[in-house]
Amino acid sequence: MTDLNTRQKDTLAAIAAADTADAVEALRVEALGKQGWISQLLKTLGKMTPEERQEQAPAIQQARAAVADAIADRKQAIDDAELDRKLATETLDLSLPAPATPKGTVHPVSQVMDELAEIFADLGFAVKTGPEVEDDWHNFTALNMDENHPARAMHDTFYFPDRDADDRAMLLRTHTSPVQIRTMMNEGAPLRIIAPGRVYRSDSDATHTPMFHQVEGLVIDKDIHLGHLKWTLETFLKAFFERDDIVLRLRPSYFPFTEPSVEVDVGFAIVKGRRVLGGSGDAPGHAWMELLGSGMVNRRVIEFAGLDPDEWQGFAFGVGVDRLAMLKYGMDDLRAFFDGDIRWLQHYGFSPYDQPTLSAGVGASS
After folding, report:
1. Cα–Cα distance, 78 to 29 (Å, whole number)
2. β-pairing, 258-271 with 248-255?
3. 162 pLDDT band (50/70/90 cuts)?
4. Model pTM?
5. How confident is the model over 90-146, as pLDDT tens digits?
């Protein structure tokens, strides 16, 4: 904690002394960027014991909030000073048309990815990534889908003619579940991770595209049960949609890699022609909508990962990031996400300065 306090004080002092927007941005990247020192400390929380996390997480979160607030205040002060300087030294010809100012935006998928990372980091999850060009064993076999398993038919995908050094077929991954296998094999247990990223399937219509984004979650520990899964999903969805009245319904289902498996439905109502999540699906004017799949990790998957299923157990879940963005921000056609239409991006995009935080609400203003 002493090192944290010292580094926080040094960073705040550097921010206060910064005299240009570029200098402030460099300090933001150094502290809060993906490789920033505060971001790295947050990633370590997932590897700590509950006791260590309870002791250290508040201080790290406080440091992040203090640095973020200081950066925002310093940027505003520099902007105000620059405006005052221009007003005092420049003249403006009001007869001239105002020049067009290019304005970039953050894509809704990137925005939702940041929101997910923010929420799950607060729950102690680490973010893991893996290769998009995957081998048959990690993508299917290790997830309890052998070569002739009928579940593979639901994952028709894009195969490559080449094979890897172990003579395994290569393909574009159909889900981010291989990241779970790789992490279990590399890091063992206990684990608490999310795996966001691009995935690929042969499908295309208004709600499906050949490439889309998915986030999967995995918890491996001792004495884990479905109650932990339901609480995690409720907490996540309430924070993401910023509503306390999110109601879930769990239905028995089948996935090769979980047993038992459950589909997760969420209650919603149609408000002004738009689906709005909240309330029980059994309430008047409401209905249930399937949102994601989940379940307890199959014993065979734990064995494939090199762990003892009699000692370790856990749960997993997966949901489409694009689907979450559509539900939260009101898009109605998934294909528009990837058209690159600047008008769509300007309408649905987000300011790069409007970073999601739990204290201010993870939903940014478009």
Report:
1. 18
2. antiparallel
3. confident
4. 0.68
5. 777 778 887 777 778 899 999 999 999 999 999 999 999 999 999 989 998 999 888
Nearest to 220 by CA among 80, 4, 46: 46
Q: CA 249 → CA 234, 238, 274, distances in Å?
A: 10, 14, 21
Residues 6+ apart with CB under 8 A from 330: 274
Buried b (16+ CB within 10 A) or exposed e, 146-177: eeeeeebeebebeeeeeeeeeeebbbbbbbbb
* Closest-CA residue to 218 (of 149, 125, 119): 125
d(CA 318, CA 55): 30
CB atoms within 10 A of CB 125: 24
- CA distance linking residue 127 with residue 334, whole number of Å: 25
151/185 Cα distance (integer angstroms): 24
Residue showing tokens 């738009």: 274
Phi, psi angle pair for 93, to nearest 5°: -85, 105
User: Pairing relation of β-strands 286-297 and 274-277?
Assistant: unpaired
